[in-house]
Amino acid sequence: MQIKKKFTLEIIILSIILAITSFIIIDNTLNVEENFSILNDDLIPRLSLLKDMRLMASNVLISTLEFTMFEENFVTSDDTQSNANVHSSEILSEIEENKIQFIQLFEMYKEKVSESNVDVDSITQINMKWEQFTIFSDKFVEYRKKGISGDEFLKIKDEFKNSKDNLFVQIDSLLIINEKQVQQKGYDVSELVKFSTVLILIVVSVFVLVLIILRHYLLKSILKPIFQIRSATQEIAKNKLNLRINDISKDEIGELSEDINLMTHKLESVQDKLLKTEKLSIVGILAGRMAHDIRNPLAIITASLEILKLKYPDLEDVKFNKINNAVNRITHQIEDVLDFVKTSPLIIEKTSLLDILKHILDSQELSGDVNVILPQNDAIARCDSQRIRIVFLNLFLNAIDAVGKSGEIKIRFHDYKELIKIEFEDSGSGLEEKDLEHLFEPLFTTKQKGTGLGLSSVENIIKEHGGTITVTLSPTIFTIILPKTLD
After folding, report:
1. First-to-last CA distance in the chain?
2. CA distance linking residue 375 with residue 411, whole number of Å
3. How many CA atoms lie within 13 A of 472 on its CB side?
4. Angle at which helices 317-341 and 454-464 cross, to 10°
5. SS3 369
6. Mind listing the pLDDT tens digit for each residue in 226-255?
7. Concatenated DSSP letters of 297-319
8. Cα–Cα distance measured from residue 289 to residue 405, given in angstroms and rounded to the nearest whole number
9. Rounded to whole angstroms, how far apart are CA atoms 135 and 143?
10. HSE-CB of 200 using CA atoms within 13 angstroms
11. Buried/exposed 438-466: b ≥16 CB within 10 Å, e otherwise
């Protein structure tokens, strides 16, 4: 997973946890708010209204009893009659005011009960018992005003007391119920607050724990390969170019590790090439000097051989041929070395590849059992004819060595629009598969004689011309691809 995706995943996970936390907090806050709203807007106002209603009913009771007691204890006189009347009016006025306030409170309570959709029967009961209470209160006052006494007054008094008890019992029962509801709702709010607090602490703890785990995972997945890369670069700095970084992750750091592995592979290849180039450079210098020193004695041997042929014509040609073949072999090996180390620029010209093959074939002495099949068609290429001659000569000599004293060598030209394909096929015993990998390396040879530079020179010359050379087995076929850059 890429580092960017890892951080994105971390953000998504943390966002989900934050969203859940926010949802829980909001939900619990709404629940607390709802319960507080029920308390403030419903239960507490209803409880308060019931208390005020009971207070008004108590005031009516007290004022009624006060009026009856005042009338009962009043002594008539001229000076106090007017004061008594005034006081009686005040008591009666207080009774009426308390009744009105009770009715107002009752209407408010009835509205609250209707909004809360609770037991409406309590409204009917309070209303009925309040009417009974006020009726008996009015009768009680009226009887006292008229001076009625005796059993009838006591009966009204008892009925008034019973109506008072019924009303107060009804109100007190509702007060008890509402007080319990207020207490229960307060308890619910308290529990919700506790639950919300605990839940928030748990969620925050989970959030922190997940954050630590994710960050640990991210840092581990990032820092571990970084430490591997650092260790690897330190080893590479010590010239250990064969070192490779293993356990490559599938992210940007993994791509960096692959790039480092590729870099060390290329550095290793470049170092090998530099070492080989350095060695071959030294070989080239020595080869140039040795070729000059060897060619002079070979020229003397060749000239002397010609003189001996003229001076002793009766000697067998076989002896002269052995000496001549030995000289040619040494000369060819010198030319292989010189061809390999030659760095002169290409001389490009339009060239007949078939003519080059014919000249090579004319210059070679073949056994009668070796059959060479030349191409039926010609191919014209823009190339350095001398370098291509070296290529064809080396491949031709390799084919002759492969077939031995008898066999067949086929050379084919395939002339396409933009390139030429050249094939050298022989019927020899063939190469071994293990040798294919090193076939074009300098100084590598499968023959007991030879320098091991011929095929390496062939590959260099073909690459200089922008082409390629490959080889296949069973049968052995060397295939050259040359670009045909005609005017």
Report:
1. 54
2. 6
3. 8
4. 50
5. strand
6. 777 777 777 777 777 676 767 666 666 666
7. HHHHHHHHHHHHHHH-TTS-HHH
8. 35
9. 12
10. 13
11. ebbebeebeeeebbbbbbbbbbbbbeebe
